[in-house]
């Protein structure tokens, strides 16, 4: 029987780690993120926030021009042309303009941080789709190489049957194992195509190689894990956006409270009556008298400010949870992969003995095929856990803004 060249040479698992192991080109990622509709929409929302802030800075009040013309008829005196014209403008009371400027500043700050958070979440989506593709392709390669091994086994058994050295039952067993392996190849290949299709649909400008590269072995030092945890918290745009929104809501609450005393309007009025016989000019003044409606609005704004403050605290909780969860997942994924690799080495040693024993006629084909299946499962598990560990490390690096989101 010919020697079997199984799936991934263990020496490949010890390959040195590259600067960006298994990840797409950073420039291509930056372009893909920049072009994604969610990021583009967030940019436009930031522009809208800046326009709104400018509107608040200049204030809502404008000059109002009004006038009237009439023709009056007076008995025994005749007809007269009469008109009046008036220019008025409201003025913000002291303190309101300052609050409006503060609201605009916080509004823009919140929008900019929310835009960065959208970019962050889009990067996480890209990473998930990328590792879905890489993982499915890695499993497909494992299954394809296992299929080649089963084809080799069937060929050898068929030759022994022809020579009268093996029963047809052994050939049937080898054929069954081969067909099972073929099904697994088709399934993994289909999932690879599906994952690539999803990646191309969401990020059409991302440059993809013709074939998914090998998933490299994961590696990250414990000290680096702890540093990244702090970076996740320090660089959180979610917290920064919540802080800015809480400050905006507080300033808006003060602004609505100040608006319980309405802004006064001042203006000038000119008139002509009785065909110009009576003319005059004067100053006009008006001011709404606030009531229960304005008080209710102030109460609503105060509650909204309290809610925004609670949302800020919640954002801090959630970011701390994300940081701790990222670290915990990276640790256990790495540990699980290392265990899978050790198990694979033991399975390979066992399979070598089974193959040799089967060649010497000391081991039944069924036992050897069971060993092949166990090694196949071990390689597939190792590939799955290797991908899961790389996925966890990538997620941690993105959450820390150490990957793809660096300024």
3D structure, described in words:
- Helix content is 68%, strand content 10%.
- The protein starts with 9 loop residues before the first helix and ends in an 8-residue tail after the last helix.
- Mean pLDDT is 86; it is low at 1-19.
- The chain has helices at residues 10-13, 26-35, 37-58, 96-162, 168-202, 222-234, 237-258, 292-359, 365-399, and strands spanning 64-74, 78-90, 265-273, 278-286.
- It has a single domain (10-59, 110-260, 309-399), classed as Outer membrane efflux proteins (OEP).
- It contains 9 helices and 4 strands, in the order αααββααααββαα.
CATH homologous superfamily designation: Outer membrane efflux proteins (OEP)
CATH fold field value:
Outer membrane efflux proteins (OEP)
Give the helix tally.
9
How many domains make up the coordinates? 1
Q: How far apart are the first and last residues' alpha carbons, in Å?
A: 59 Å
CATH architecture: Up-down Bundle
State the total count of DSSP E strands.
Answer: 4
Range of helix content: 55-70%
Helix-strand pattern: HHHEEHHHHEEHH
The average pLDDT score comes to: 86
Query: Strand order, biggest sheet?
Result: 1-2-3-4
CATH class: Mainly Alpha
Radius of gyration: 37 Å
**DSSP strand content:** 5-15%
Secondary-structure-derived class = alpha+beta
Low-confidence stretches: 1-19
The main β sheet shows up as: 4 strands, antiparallel
Q: What would the principal axes of the Cα set say about the shape?
A: elongated
GO molecular function, one term: efflux transmembrane transporter activity
Pfam family, one: OEP
Family: Belongs to the outer membrane factor (OMF) (TC 1.B.17) family.
Keywords: Signal
